[in-house]
Design a protein that fits this description.
The complex is a heterodimer of chains A (333) and B (218). Chain A is of the alpha/beta class and 333 residues long. In chain A, 33% of the residues lie in helices and 23% in strands. Chain A is globular, with a radius of gyration of 19 Å. Chain B has one domain: Alpha Horseshoe (Serine Threonine Protein Phosphatase 5, Tetratricopeptide repeat). Chain B starts with a strand and ends with a helix. Chain B has 218 residues and is mainly α. Classes of the chains: A alpha/beta (333), B mainly alpha (218). Chain B: It comes from Kineosporia mesophila.
Chain lengths: 333, 218
């Protein structure tokens, strides 16, 4: 293992310390491992809280700021946070307008956020609406598994719901933006190598040179199948076809196309992949109205990428274009 | 024999469970690395240590419900992952069922276990046969209830319950995982013993050992 760390046990807190030093616009509670907008709670605004295991940066802490999240909670690497952290964050961002929890569909995240919402309501009376994202089409037998995983759509949901909250929409409408985004978004990923969890010290899974895992999750969970490495043009098809088979993206007002890096794949390859994705979408009659390319939801130092498509209407495009000012996403400011 | 489980005995049970999990931490993590994310032993050990330090700091409520609630919250607050809320819910529901009292008879203990089981069922949305902790928990609780209904002695019923949990644990090996992270492995989850069922079997063996030993010591 070659990593720029001091000690595996200190990675999460020391990284948060660095985030705080680099971004004075954030307030970081190192004890509870919570990243806040410095001006939270924002009077009258619905607050957005998300969180999960660490190792997916910039998600979620890098998406805290105006136009996106009010707080993000960091668990251990690839381990969900505990309810106490979520309650603490929820209490500190609520302005009285209520709080939306955005939760990726992973059993640990779902259970801990669920308990937190119960405790927050019982102890503080804060109104919490939790919305779960589950956009990963790689998981086929939803009835016989923990269900589709929450992946790329989570980034888009945090941006779009963040803009809706900033615009002053009430609690249920902000939660509804997350639900609409989740219902209209689909993702699929591929890993070329396995990431290494600092505490484990060795790659999570073996992936021989010359092979790739299609449909991988964001913690190295196995995907649909292992296949020989192929040119980017074919990989784009392997990722896009299951997405297009799952939901019709041709009608309506177009899509946001998102090519996401899993941590160790450079931008030169991500843009190359985006080119292949865009060309295939054009051939399939899918109109791209906005795009996002880069490492936004990573899996430590996994090489590979994921593709997310989101069907949008005028409202969602306006929310997408609204100003956002976070370490990870920043425009219009 | 005394058929009363008092607050001291319940504390001993929780502390014994924590010790047994720590002793088996490497095995639990090994099982979890085959079909999960290789942290069940370390996560649960961390949480149970937090629980034991709360139980040992002298501020433990003298009443069973509040003591179990404090234990459950300590666990929930320190484990993370799925096992924190699931074990935490088990103890929190036991706490509600037991209420403010300083001893439980066999039927009240069985009722508290049943409440804990119902809590885990509701929290995890899993059913028997999904290759989870429930595959040890359900037989453990049902066997205890059945044994008491048949009028068998308390000690014997607790032993039967622990045996049933272990048999349930062993039965998870050929199962196909349908919940949690192991479910993404599909067929590849077959042939591995479930780590959650393994730690649950330790919980009921610890109950048999401490609650029956408690009687022996008197």
């Amino acid at each position: 293992m070659k990593k720029l760390i001091n000690a595996p046990a200190d990675v999460v807190v020391e990284s948060l310390r660095g985030l705080a030093a680099a971004h004075p616009g954030l307030r970081v509670d190192l004890e509870h491992r919570i990243i806040y907008r410095a001006d939270a709670p924002v009077p009258g605004k619905v607050a957005l809280v998300s969180g999960g295991g660490s190792g997916h940066e910039p998600l979620h802490g890098g998406f805290v700021g105006r136009g996106m999240l009010d707080a993000a909670i960091a668990g251990e690497v690839f381990t969900s946070p505990v309810p106490g952290q979520v309650v603490e964050a929820t209490r500190n961002v609520d302005s009285g307008a209520g709080v939306v929890h955005i939760v990726k569909n992973y059993t640990g995240d779902v259970l801990n956020f669920e308990m937190a919402a119960e405790i927050a309501l019982e102890e503080t009376g804060i109104e919490v609406v939790a919305v779960i994202t589950d956009d990963d089409v790689a998981v086929q037998d939803s009835l016989y598994t923990a269900g589709r995983r929450g992946v790329g759509v989570t980034v888009l949901a945090e941006k779009l719901a963040g803009a809706a909250a900033e615009a002053g929409r009430p609690l249920q409408q902000v939660a509804d933006v997350v639900r609409r985004v989740n219902a209209n978004g689909r993702s699929m990923g591929v890993a070329l190598t396995s990431g290494t969890v600092p505490a484990a010290g060795r790659p999570t899974f073996d992936l021989p040179e010359g092979e790739m895992e299609i449909g991988v999750g964001i913690h190295g969970e196995p995907g649909r199948r292992r296949v020989p490495l192929a040119p980017a043009r074919q990989v784009a098809g392997l990722l896009l076809d299951p997405i297009l088979d799952d939901l019709d993206f041709t009608g309506g007002d177009g899509v946001i196309a998102f090519v996401n890096g899993l941590g160790a794949t450079p931008l030169i390859e991500l843009y190359l992949m985006y080119g292949e994705v865009a060309a295939r979408l054009e051939k399939a009659g899918v109109r791209v109205v906005r795009s996002l390319v880069g490492p936004y939801l990573t899996s430590l130092d996994t090489a590979g990428c994921s593709v997310t498509l989101l069907k949008v209407d005028d409202d969602l495009v306006r929310l997408w274009d609204a100003p956002v000012n976070t370490p990870g996403l920043r425009w219009g400011v | 024999m005394s058929e009363i489980v008092d607050v001291t005995t319940l504390r001993s049970w929780l502390i014994r469970f924590a010790g047994d999990v720590e002793e088996h931490a490497a095995q639990l993590t090994e099982l979890d690395s085959a079909i999960g994310d290789a942290d069940h032993g370390s996560n649960l050990t961390r949480g149970l240590k937090a629980m034991v330090s709360v139980l040992a700091d002298g501020t433990t409520p003298p009443s069973i419900g509040p003591m179990l609630k404090q234990s459950g919250m300590a666990l929930v607050s320190s484990v993370g992952g799925a096992s924190g809320p699931l074990y935490g819910t088990f103890f929190l529901r036991m706490a509600t069922s037991a209420g403010e009292c300083d001893a439980l008879g066999p039927d009240s203990l069985a009722a508290a276990f049943r409440a804990g089981l119902e809590g885990v069922l509701a929290r995890g949305q899993a059913v028997a046969g999904d290759k989870t902790m429930l595959d040890a928990l359900i037989p453990a609780v049902e066997t205890l209830e059945a044994a008491l209904n048949e009028g068998r002695p308390f000690g014997e019923a607790l032993k039967a319950s622990a045996d049933a949990a272990e048999a349930g644990r062993d039965a998870t090996t050929p199962m196909l995982a349908r919940k949690g992270r192991a479910s993404y492995l599909g067929e590849r989850s077959v042939g591995h013993q479930d780590p959650g069922a393994t730690s649950t079997a330790l919980l009921f063996r610890a109950a048999a050992n401490t609650m029956i030993d408690g009687e022996d010591n008197q």
